[in-house]
């Protein structure tokens, strides 16, 4: 079954899930200008918000999702309101505002219950699951991910199936069950390929590359990342591209190629900063500090930088990342 972009609504529903973000933004702006009803305008503003969010234009994305919500509320359309709240919650997570993300996504799920679109509810719950997962709540979010996977399979939503599989695979990878994680990333890649979901395929390839690297096949891991990078560039997936590059740094670091890893991490810090993605930026900085430490940086400086990152992760509510910074301190300085 072919994957669809459920967030492109109304007259924009015909857009391919693989449409470049520039194309989506152009089409959404045209529909917004030509809209004759509040529902049409809300759908166009939602698409503008999502394109801008994924391009890293966060201030405009913020204005657009709020405009979409106001328009949908005026039209008394709970489904459109839920989609707007989902967009706002997803943006809040991207910007590292996790309590706000939880509030908006919870409101999105509750509002979707008042409408008729099960997919809107599923996306809102998926947003809550992903927010908890990136904060390190693997046990609590695993159950929700698995529930959403079952619903997505039953509803015939291949794109959402791919997302859920990748989320569950990430949890198994973090818990040390690499075989299960690899199997799930591989299934996600297959479903994404069959459904022509290039975004989902690119994220799955990143996960497969990670596990391939952990098994010692460095060159194959780098090849997989290059394959995924091509898709990210074609579709202008700025966040996915930055995370792809961060994984390339991880692969090089594990291989002991510290100078190359340092160079990649340094560039990736700038990529994340450009799209206002503080979690990714901090994780790339962690890789950069570790690479410099392995390259002979002064222990006192390494200790200082790791301390700053540990506090930053802790204050942001990124508990797993804080643990990573603590482990790095132990490995590099004791």
UniProtKB/TrEMBL annotation:
The residue stretches assigned to a coiled coil in this entry are: 211-238
Which keywords label this protein?
Coiled coil
- Domain of life, per UniProt, equals Bacteria
Annotated protein name in UniProt: Tetratricopeptide repeat protein
Q: Which organism is it from?
A: Saccharopolyspora rhizosphaerae
């Amino acid at each position: 079954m072919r994957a669809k972009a459920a967030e492109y609504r109304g007259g924009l529903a015909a857009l391919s899930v693989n449409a470049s973000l520039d194309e989506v933004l152009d089409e959404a702006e045209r529909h917004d200008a030509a809209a004759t009803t509040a529902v049409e305008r809300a759908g166009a503003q939602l698409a503008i918000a999502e394109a801008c969010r994924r391009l890293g234009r966060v201030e405009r994305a913020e204005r657009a999702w709020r405009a979409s919500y106001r328009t949908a509320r005026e039209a008394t359309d709970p489904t459109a309101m839920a989609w707007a709240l989902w967009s706002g919650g997803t943006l809040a997570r991207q910007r590292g505002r996790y309590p706000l993300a939880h509030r908006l996504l919870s409101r999105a799920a509750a509002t979707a219950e008042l409408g008729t679109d099960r997919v809107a509810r599923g996306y809102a719950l998926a947003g809550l699951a992903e927010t908890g997962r990136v904060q390190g709540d693997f046990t609590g979010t695993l159950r929700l991910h698995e529930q959403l996977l079952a619903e997505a399979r039953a509803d015939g939503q291949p794109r959402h199936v791919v997302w859920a599989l990748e989320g569950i695979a990430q949890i198994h990878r973090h818990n040390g069950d690499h075989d299960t994680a690899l199997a799930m990333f591989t299934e996600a890649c297959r479903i994404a390929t069959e459904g022509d979901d290039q975004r989902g395929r690119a994220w799955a390839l990143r996960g497969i590359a990670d596990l391939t690297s952990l098994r010692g096949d460095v060159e194959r891991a780098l090849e997989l990342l290059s394959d995924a990078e091509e898709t990210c560039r074609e579709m202008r997936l700025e966040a996915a591209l930055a995370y792809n590059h961060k994984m390339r740094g991880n692969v090089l670091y594990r291989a002991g190629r510290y100078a190359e890893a340092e160079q990649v991490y340094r560039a990736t810090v700038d990529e994340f900063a450009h799209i206002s993605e503080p979690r990714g930026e901090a994780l790339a900085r962690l890789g950069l500090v570790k690479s410099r430490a392995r390259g002979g940086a002064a222990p006192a400086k390494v200790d200082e930088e790791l301390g700053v990152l540990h506090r930053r992760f802790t204050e942001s509510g990124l508990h797993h990342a804080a643990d990573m910074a603590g482990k790095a301190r132990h490995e590099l300085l004791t």
